[in-house]
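Recap quiz, item 2
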Amino acid sequence: MSLKVLVGCKRVIDYAVKIRVRPDKLGVVTDGVKHSMNPFDEIAVEEAVRMKEKKLAKEIVVVSCGPQQAQETIRTALAMGADRGYHIDVAADKMATLQPIHVSKIMAKLAEKEKADIVMLGKLAIDDDSNQTAQMTAALLDWPQGVFASKVDAKDKGLEVVREIDGGLETINIDLPAVLSADLRLNEPRYATLPNIMKAKKKKVEKVKPEDLGVDITPRIEVVNVEDPPVREAGQSVGDVEELVGKLKDKGF
Amino acid sequence: MSLSSIARYAPRSCRHLFALSSVQSTRHMSGLGEATFTELPETHQMLKDTCRQFAENELWPIAGKIDKTQEYPEQQIHKMGELGLMGIDIPEEYGGTGLDALAYAVALTEISRGCASAGVIMSAHNSLYLGPVKYFGNHEQKENYVSPFIDGTKIGCFCLSEPGNGSDAGAASTTARDEGDHYVLNGTKAWITNSYQAEGVIVFATTDKAKKHKGISAFIVPKPTEGLSLGKKEEKLGIRASATSNVIFEDVKIPKENLLGTPGMGFKIAMMTLDSGRIGIAAQALGIAKNAFDTAVEYSSKRNSFGAPISKLQMIQSKIADMALKIEMSEMMMYKAAALKDAGKPFTKEAAMAKLACSETATYVAHQAIQVLGGMGYVSDMPVERNYRDARITEIYEGTSEIQRLVIAGNVMKEYGY
C-alpha cells in the first residue's frame, strides 16, 4: 500500500497550564500562555509516521488552522516525521468561533484536493472536548469512519480498526479511503529528535485561507459567557445504605 | 592587521574564507539565528520543548532513585543519543546534529532540570570529550573517536586533573615518553567524570617537564587499553549517578596517530576546551537552579501558615524575587557567552562569567529553596535537598569559582591595556 495520509493537528493551551478565565468573561487567557499540539493529535501524527515506517503510507500531509503561531504546531508535526504542511490562516479573534463544522469542511476540501486515502484526527481537542470533527469530516466526504481507534492495521484492501467503546473494544473492517480518529492508547508519540527538528525547517508549509478552499467560516455561534466551574462543595458522610437511600429520596431522586 | 583580526571584521558570509585553524572555522553557517532578549529562534524553542518533555518524562521520574543507587542511567543516555543530544554540535558529516552553542546551552539546561547527573554526563561527553577531537583532531581521528560516539551507546571522558594538581593544570606530572612510532603514558588522573563508562579517553601528559605547560600534549586513548585502569568510584555528595574516579596509566602504549594536534599543544587544547565546557556547566547549574526554584515557588503557593499561603509573606516573596533575578541574570550571561561563541568572537571572559554566575546562582537558589520549604526541604521526600547537593560541585569542577575570577580579571586587564 502507498497511502497518502492527511493529519489534522490543533494548537491548544498546554495540558499542564492552569486555565484562567479572562476578565471580560468571554474566554480564557491565551496571551503569553504555553500552547502545544493537542495530545490526541500528537498520537494521530505518530500513527501516520508509523504507517510510513511500515511502508503502508508514502506521504504525510499535516493541517493546522489558526494564526501565525499555528505554524509552530505544523513544524512540530514535521519534526516528528510528516512530509509537508498546510497552514489554514485564521485570525486569532476568529478562533473562538471556529467550530468543528468549519474545520471538517476544510479537512474534506483538502482531502479531495490532495486525494488523501486516510484522514487522521485526534478523537477530540482538549480545549473544547467536541469529539465532532472526525465524524463530520467522514459524513461530508461520505467515507467510512474508524473513530476512537486504539489499533489500526491494513487488512486486505482496507483497514481493520479496533475501537474503544463504552462496552469494551470493537473491531471493524472499513474500506479506503477512510477517516480515523486517534484514542489515547493507539500509540505513544515519539520525541522530535534534533536532526528531525533541523530537517523540518526545510519542509514545505503552504499558507492558505479558508475562502481559497471555498469554506465559509462565518461564526454560527456567539460566546455569551465563560466562567469557572463552581467550587466543589464538601460531601456528606452517611452511616449506612438506608441513610443514603433516605437522603436521595429527600432530594427527589 | 593579522588575519585573525581581519576575519573578525569580514561580513559573516565571508568568515569561513578566513578559517585559520579548525578552531576558527567551527562557526556553523546554518543561519539558525541568534537569541534576542525576548525570545529564542524557532529551532531552539522546539529543541527546548523536546528536551523539556524528555526530561519530564524520562529523567525526572528516575532522578531520585539513581541518586540513591548511584547507577548510570544507561537507557536514558541511549535515548538522549537517539534524540541527537550526545553530539549536539558535531557536524553532520560525522553523524552529529550540527547545532550551535546556543542549542547546546538550551538543551543542557532542560536536561539538567530533569536530572543533574544526566546533565553532567551529557556535558562532559559533548564539551570535554568530543570537543577536543572536533576542534583539534584530524579526519581519521574524528572518524574513529567522534562518529562512533554520537548515538549515546559510547561515551568519553577528559583527563586533566591529577591528585597533585587541579587548578594548577600546567603542573601535570603524567608523562608521555616518545618511543618512535608510539608514546608510553604513565601517571594518574583524578576526579574523572564518566570514567567507568568511557570508551574514549582524552588525556593530557607532559613530554618534557622542563618546558612546564608548553611541554604538555593531548592524546586520545581508547578504553579498554592495556595498562589503563580505574580507581575506586568516588562516593560523592551530589551528581551521584555520574561515575567519578581516578584513571591510572601504567605503561600505556598508544600509536603516534593518537596525538591530538601537535606536541606541546596540550595546554592550549585544554584551555580552549574548558572555555566551551564552561558554557555547558553554566547550563547544567542553571538547570539545577531552575528545578529548585520551581519547587520552591509551587510549595510556597500551597503551604499555608499564619492563615494564608506562605507566598503571601514578604520574606518569602523577597527570597523568590532574589532567586528569580539571579536565575535571569545568569541565564542572560549564558546566552551571551553562547552567542559570542556562535558568532566566532572571543568568548573566554564571558564563558567564565557565565560559569561563575550560574554555579553561584545554583548554590544560592538551592540553599534558599530549602529555606522556603523549611523542614520539608531537608528530607528526601522533596527534591530540593538533592538540588542542594547536586549544585555544590558546579562551583568546583571545570575551573573553580576562584579560577573563573582569575580568568575574568586577566581578560579585563588585557581589555584595559594593562
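Chain A touches chain B at residues 36, 72, 75-76, 79, 191-195, 197-198, 200-201 (CB under 8 Å).
The first strand of chain A starts at residue 3 and ends at 8.
End of item.
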